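Help needed: design a sequence for this.
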């Protein structure tokens, strides 16, 4: 799960670069000339890009709650 979490960040960046959308923060557009000034369509949420951070948040919650659940050992 840790490796999956690490890979999901790279997948998100790759999708953002491939689709040139999903840049929710103008600061994510670096000084690279093609994306120096983002257009309004680039700053709108892109469902394909937003899916990966949502999955990462779900996995992080599971990674945090899972060990606590095992330590507590609730009855079946």
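Sure. Designed sequence:
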């Amino acid at each position: 799960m840790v490796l999956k979490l690490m890979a999901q960040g790279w997948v998100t960046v790759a999708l953002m670069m491939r689709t040139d959308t999903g840049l929710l923060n103008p600061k994510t557009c670096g000084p690279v000339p093609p994306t120096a000034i983002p257009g309004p369509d680039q700053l709108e949420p892109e469902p394909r890009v937003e899916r990966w951070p949502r999955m990462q948040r779900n996995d992080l919650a599971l990674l945090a709650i899972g060990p606590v659940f095992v330590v507590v050992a609730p009855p079946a």
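Residues 2-72 form one domain.
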